[in-house]
Amino acid sequence: EPTVRTELMEQIPPIAIFLQESQPKFPTAFFEYLMPIVVRYLTDVNNQVRKAGQEALLILLEQDLVAQSDIENKVCPILLDLSAPDSDDEYKVEAVNIICKMASMLSRTTVEHMLLPRFCELCSDGKLFQVRKICAANFGDICNAVGQEATERLLIPKFFELCSDSVWGMRKACAECFMAVSYTTSPEVRRSKLSPLFISLISDTCRWVRQAAFQSLGPFISTFANPSSAGLYIREDGTLSIRPSTQDVNSSSCQPSNNITFMSSSTKAT
């Protein structure tokens, strides 16, 4: 019964945590018995079971309970199969979604070598706009996961494609994550490539795209500032913040605060 398999998936993370805490007694139980179940349920015929399996996998990754070898040899190959060009549409959409979510939890080497090539292919998926939409919405997180060199070499050309996509929702998603993408690039790329690209979004024929671009204008401009002098920094949750100066901290509490937070791609309009 699918409901039984779904309930089982919900119990996997707490069981895995217990086994981790009791590792001297159960050194290989998780890797031999539980991890194969999680991987198998990623391809279950029932979508609720698959969803539960995906959620369990993300929790396991967040808790750092999955060995690097299992990620590279068991999890990534399944996701690559599910996101292949000839894969079922529903499976492909789910696969690209979980690839984007898990990218920030994996090592840069694993993401760049195993997942980045497929992500770039999915950005150009001409069959499913839902796949391109997920890629556009999570583009900033992928850039942050792989770093500046891979972003400028492989991802920026794909970002240009998505920013000129025929579907306005794609261009809107790009405008919303523009600051996060810009923050990962060099000042020269920001000036010579991203600035003209942003102008095209702020001049877009679609009102919703223009509105999203104007909302991202301030955060995008802030990426040109020198962090040491401007006090700008990116928090772990993906928000751009201004660190108050020593003078502000020592000033009277009745003075207005100088803390300002700009939301990046981590907080998107629905």
What would you say this structure looks like, in words?
- With 270 residues, the protein is mostly helical.
- It has a domain at 1-41.
- 68% of the residues lie in helices and 3% in strands.
- It has 15 helices and three strands.
- It has a three-stranded antiparallel β-sheet with strand order 1-2-3.
- Strand 1 and strand 2 (240-242) form a beta hairpin.
- Helix 5 (89-102) runs parallel beside helix 7 and helix 8 (139-146) packs antiparallel against helix 9.
- The radius of gyration is 21 Å and the shape is elongated.
- Mean pLDDT is 84; it is low at 245-270.
Features:
elongated; 68% helix; 3 strands; 270 residues; disordered C terminus; 15 helices; mainly alpha
Which oligomeric form is depicted?
Answer: single chain
**Number of β-strand runs:** 3
> How much strand?
under 5%
Sheet of most strands: 3 strands, antiparallel
Helicity level, as a percent range?
A: 55-70%
**Secondary-structure element series:** HHHHHHHHHHHHHHEEHE
Choose one word for the global shape.
elongated
How would you state the average pLDDT, rounded?
Answer: 84
Number of helices: 15
How would you classify the helix and strand content by structural class?
mainly alpha
> How are the strands of the biggest sheet laid out side by side?
1-2-3
Q: Give Rg in angstroms.
A: 21 Å
Given as residue ranges, the uncertain stretches (5+ residues, pLDDT < 50) are 245-270
What gap, in angstroms, lies between the N and C termini? Answer: 34 Å
Write the layout of secondary structure elements.
Elements: H1 2-21, H2 29-41, H3 47-62, H4 68-82, H5 89-102, H6 108-123, H7 129-137, H8 139-146, H9 148-163, H10 168-176, H11 178-183, H12 187-202, H13 207-222, H14 227-230, E1 232-234, E2 240-242, H15 246-250, E3 261-262
Antiparallel strand pairs: 1-2, 2-3
Helix pairs in contact: 1-2, 1-3, 2-4, 3-5, 5-7, 7-10, 8-9, 10-13
